[in-house]
Predict the 3D structure of the following.
Amino acid sequence: MNAATPPWYADGRFHYGVGIEDTFIPQERPGHRKLDLYELTQHYENWRTDLALAAEAGAELIRWGIPWYLTEPSDGAFDFRWIDQVAGEMDRLGLRCVVDLMHYGTPLWLENSFLDPRYPELVARYAGEVAGRYRGVFHDYTPLNEPMVNAEWCGYRGAWPPYLTGDSGFVRLAMILVEGMRRSQAAIRAADPAATIVHVDAGFQWEGDFGSARPKEFLDEWRFVMTDLLFGRVGEAHVLRPYLLENGAGEAQLDGFAAEPTVPDVLGINYYPGFTRQRFDAESGRSLPVEAGRQGLLEQVRAYAGRYRLPLAITETSRPTADPAEKIAWLDDLASAASELRAEGIDLVAAFWFPMLDMFEWEYRFDTRPLDDFRIQFGLVDLVRGPDNRLQRVRNEAYAHYQRLAKRD
């Protein structure tokens, strides 16, 4: 890109992308199986086919992640042989990769995962190594996918390493993750000053109160807290500053974040029409998914546009169903909603169908049932297990519909 050429997110067009599900939780313990979605979907064996399917679908962009735990198998020893092949093939196919540097999991050698005091330094070292090696091949980076979900599953629910729980666990993880993102973005910029940073946030919407300590008014602000911290918005007047301080955040660290905002080029929002919105069920004590559909997407994008005023991308959306007609209907809703939002003047620049392939739900980690019991039919491409145990890639009718949309715009 020369000085006269605008970046892709400022060229006035709407861009279509796809994604390959890339959750990596390699740590095992009794009752907790390894969770590597590249392994479970057989992407390691089929990556050339998967990239070809993305390119043939007409996607300009692809969200694809590097498994840090395999790329740095021991402290400071990097092995980029596989990544080199994938990067070269993406370049050949003309796929612009938004690189997920961190999709939840840390390397096995990193003692106690995110609680290792060197985590922010080491994740930044890794980010800088990748950005430097692939300068001119990869141009776009997400330092940490869905930091809110990461802090919740690792720090509030205690489901993933380092298995902290409650509000104090959440806040402790939040502060560490934000520091890691800040340092990673700086390392990427140092290695490749022209790199684009795409921050990816998990969108949440709530109905009802989730207990007296978590009323809807609290949750409606809490969903933004990771992005607010990173963007330096948690000053003295921020409504959640007392919550953060009461649960272990330090005044000096909050002030440091506020004094040096870390702002990306593009803000990504992950939205799923069937479960981004949650309702508290008093009888079971659990949250239940609520269908929010097209209207929920409009509300979500408008909320982020009004709050942050950055170029926006819908970095994950899809409809998990065995019926391709329902996926096609969501593609049409997505396209029409994007047109409506852009007509309002909102700087919505892209949407990614994520994941392009079917995936296996995270609950597989906590169970003993066979893998296929956990398949979720998210994909434009179905995963069909053959008699040889290989997962065949079979395009469904929604693939062709996506193709028409992507090649039209």
